[in-house]
Specification:
There is one protein chain. This protein is an all-alpha fold. The chain has two domains: 136 residues, no CATH class; 55 residues, no CATH class. The chain is 74% helix and 0% strand.
Length: 212
């Protein structure tokens, strides 16, 4: 008689997916060109591009993983997307992957930015060029806002909790957008309080869940 209490191997695989079988870059070359292509698209609204490429298109990260990694990348010194490339490169291929991913982010895009800066120097005083830059800024702000709304459902599974996350987001918008407080102080105070709350919530989890 078949034991119905024990699921077949295929069911176990679906319930507990092996992280080694999740999508990942096939080689260092693929990693380099992926981040190179990502960087070439990332003018202003880089958050939207990174989320679309890494989560929706390539599926190297889940939404929850992306939210957590992006938060760490923002706290670390340096450009957010470069920090993220270092983290992912190291995760997939170790130290070599970190350097290759960073090279993909900075090589060709750096040459392109230098070329554009040279061209812009000759037209920066023209009203058309200034209007174009203001329009690009508005588009970038819209892309970032839309991506933030898209990622909000991922906070439901975050240990901080939806209510505390909403409170932290509201206070951050109030402090920076309205009160114009320095970003460093907002990160220090609200970031510190959020970390303390997350540490408290992790301590309240059962030991078998906290170590999972």
């Amino acid at each position: 008689m078949r034991d119905t209490a024990t699921p077949p191997a295929s069911s176990k695989a679906r319930l507990n997916p092996d992280p080694d079988t999740s999508p990942r870059p096939e080689s260092l070359r693929a990693l380099f060109w992926s981040f190179n292509w990502l960087a070439l698209q990332g003018f202003g609204g880089v958050l939207a591009i990174v989320q679309r490429e890494l989560v929706e298109r390539r599926r190297w990260l889940t939404r929850e993983q992306f939210v957590e990694d992006w938060a760490v990348a923002q706290v670390l010194p340096g450009p957010n997307v470069v920090n993220l490339s270092l983290m992912l490169g190291d995760r997939f291929f170790g130290l070599r992957g970190a350097f290759v991913a960073m090279a993909g982010m900075l090589s060709l895009p750096l040459l392109l930015v230098l070329l554009l800066a040279t061209l812009y120097a000759g037209v920066q005083t023209l009203p058309v060029a200034q209007g174009a830059l203001r329009g690009m800024g508005a588009v970038a702000a819209g892309l970032i806002a839309a991506t933030g709304l898209k990622l909000l459902p991922a906070l439901k599974k975050n240990v901080v909790g939806s209510l505390a996350s909403a409170g932290a987001i509201s206070l951050t918008v109030l402090a920076i957008g309205w009160l114009r407080l320095p970003l460093a102080w907002v990160l220090l105070v609200l970031g510190g309080l959020s970390c303390a709350w997350a540490y408290r919530q992790l301590g309240r989890l059962p030991k078998n869940m906290g170590g999972a």
